[in-house]
Design goal:
Chain lengths: ~290, ~325
């Protein structure tokens, strides 16, 4: 029972981590709390629905295409919507992201209706038994894909020239600009990566849950919890935080109350904000 | 436009507001006015904490919910009338406001917004799951209207129809506007504005930042609770959907488009976003998309909202500092 819940928590945690790393990058580099991140995740879900359920593309190809498509949408959003509010008051970026998520969510609702859509893959019915644990192949794929994508992001940020430029910009935008880093490109790339990963998460999880216009609102809130827990702007923190929140939710739901499963993560959020607002791994601001 | 003109215009509008149910007998329009007033009272509350004190409270609809549930429970489960339920719900909401505000107001900017977001979600989960008290997703039905107030001479003031309720809402709206006006002119309100503009600077001037924010928050929750209570006894039915975090965003749009931190902004926002969807019935599907687009455009092109920009325009023409206060 415990091991089973732990594994469920890991699967959930991998997905949370995948959604959250992008959000924390946007916060770290552009100082924007992206309230539209959940709707980007939702777009990933719709992409895979059309590619996989309607156009019958193989699952992995569909996930890859969804990731790139949503990444492109992310670039468009950065150019059109977020660019005007850089450096403005804190409220403005929050409000503009809210406006964007209204727009996208209800646009999707209008185009494709409110009824839930399901995505079937050959892997949802395959159940693996290891020791006393059973897990569907689809869930295992979610976990492995999350780990692979996060690993790829880690390698990109640490071992490539442009990745290092992104990290430098998050440490000091002015300093980065001084040494010749093109901040415009960094901002664009950050939004592309962040949205692409959220889109991939939406695509990977779509077969486990359903696809519907407001499917992103809970993941958005969870991502906020994870981002704060890991320290806003801290990519490694978001990964660890994602797994912690996933496991806490899974165990809390199993042993305490499944009705209030979602409350646990918010309690974590409030506790972290009050006791250690810089996050578990963040540096103190002062 | 001189000050005298403004005062005359204000008095005229006030007179019209009081005469409205007599002039317009159509209950559909009376209903729309009531809804506008309900929204306006809540957006005025929102204005105190977010517009004037600058703290973005996303648990907004959750507080309206506490007020609504407290009042509904006091009148359906307990032997209280609306007139006892209303102050009770204000008290309950203020207590929650204190409990939530005390820890979270120590945090700044986006951190405060996130904490209230979490509280807002917890509140709507509780409304939905604490079925023995809140009725769960089915909500609470058969909430009684306010009992009539007997007048000397055998007559009585009834509130079970739309026009009676209209005056009740109008009085609370005027109270909300009065409190906002006093805040914008008083020492306390200016302290709130200082906190909004620069917390460190405010502190260095000797303004008790935490206490000022707390007063703003409690005042705001008071008006939210009144909105909730009036809402419950007007519609006589409440359910968790009306108090979800998503609902908070409707109020956000009203405040931002109307003009945050201004005296008339909340009213203008409430009128626009209640009346327009009613007039443009055929485009109901596009309503929320429009909210999104309008909110985005407003942040970029009209950051002070309609009233704020109008004030700037007048201020530039008059070139007097007096125009800044209104």
């Amino acid at each position: 029972m415990f091991l089973q819940q732990l594994v469920n928590g890991l699967v959930l945690g991998g997905a949370y981590a995948l959604i959250s790393v992008g959000m924390t990058m946007i916060f770290g580099i552009m100082n924007i709390s992206n309230f539209a991140h959940g709707t980007i995740y939702m777009l990933g879900g719709y992409c895979i629905y059309f590619l996989s359920a309607v156009f019958r593309q193989p699952f992995f190809l569909a996930v890859a295409i969804s990731m790139f498509a949503v990444g492109l949408i992310g670039i468009a959003m950065e150019r059109i919507v977020f660019r005007p509010v850089y450096g403005g008051p804190v409220l403005n970026d929050l409000l503009i992201a809210l406006g964007l998520s209204f727009f996208l969510e209800n646009g999707v609702l209008l185009l494709w209706g409110s009824q839930t859509k399901s995505v079937r893959t050959p892997y949802t019915d395959v159940i693996l038994h290891v020791l006393s644990i059973s897990i569907t192949l689809q869930r295992l794929i979610v976990l492995v894909a999350s780990v692979v994508l996060i690993g790829a992001l880690y390698a990109f940020l640490n071992y490539t020239r442009f990745g290092k430029a992104i990290v430098a910009s998050s440490q000091s935008p002015k300093g980065a600009a001084l040494v010749g880093i093109d901040l415009d490109r960094v901002y664009m790339a950050t939004f592309a990566i962040s949205s692409g990963l959220a889109g991939a998460a939406g695509a990977l999880l779509a077969p486990l849950f359903y696809v519907f216009p407001t499917m992103g609102s809970m993941p958005l809130l969870k991502a906020f919890v994870v981002v704060v827990l890991g320290g806003m702007g801290n990519v490694q923190g978001a990964v660890v935080g994602g797994f912690l929140v996933g496991i806490a939710e899974s165990l809390g739901g199993a042993y305490i109350s499944s009705d209030y499963k979602n409350v646990f993560s918010f309690v974590i959020l409030i506790a972290v904000l009050l006791l250690r607002p810089q996050g578990l791994f963040g540096r103190s601001e002062s | 436009m001189g000050n005298r003109f403004i005062i005359l215009l204000g008095l005229l509008l006030l007179g019209l507001a009081f005469a409205f149910p007599v002039l317009v007998k159509d209950s559909y329009y009376q209903h729309i006015m009531n809804v506008i007033f309900l929204f306006a009272i809540s957006v005025y509350g929102f204005n105190i904490i977010t517009g004037i004190a600058g703290q973005f409270n996303i648990a907004h609809a959750g507080f309206i919910g506490i007020g609504a549930y407290a009042s509904a429970l006091a009148t359906t489960r307990l032997p209280f009338s609306f007139w006892a339920g209303l102050p009770l719900s204000v008290l309950a909401t203020a207590i929650f406001g204190f409990l939530i505000g005390y820890p979270s107001l120590r945090l700044r900017g986006v951190y405060f917004a996130l904490t209230t977001l979490a509280f807002g979600e917890i509140l709507s989960l509780v409304f939905e799951n604490w079925i023995s008290v809140t009725g769960g997703p089915m909500g609470i039905t058969k909430i009684p209207p306010p009992t009539p107030i007997p007048l000397p001479g055998g007559a009585s003031l009834a509130f079970d129809d739309k026009s009676g309720f209209y005056y009740l809402c109008l009085i609370f709206l005027l109270l909300a506007m009065y409190v906002n006006r006093q805040l914008l002119r008083s020492r306390l309100g200016r302290a709130m504005l200082a906190v909004r503009e620069n917390e460190d600077l405010a502190q260095s001037l000797g303004i008790p930042v935490a206490r000022t924010k707390m007063i703003a928050f409690i005042l705001a929750t008071g008006f939210l609770s009144v909105t909730g209570s009036l809402y419950a006894h007007y519609f006589r039915f409440i359910s968790p959907v009306s108090f979800s975090v998503g609902e908070s965003f409707r109020h956000v749009t009203m405040l931002i488009v109307g003009g945050k931190g201004t005296l008339l902004g909340p009213l203008v926002g409430a009128v626009i976003f209640t009346a327009l969807p009613e007039i443009l019935r055929s485009t109901e599907d596009y309503q929320w998309i429009a909210y999104g687009v309008i909110l985005m455009l407003c942040v970029v092109f009209l950051p002070k909202g309609i009233v704020g920009c109008f004030r700037d325009f007048r201020g530039r023409r008059a070139e007097g500092p007096a125009a800044e206060d209104r």
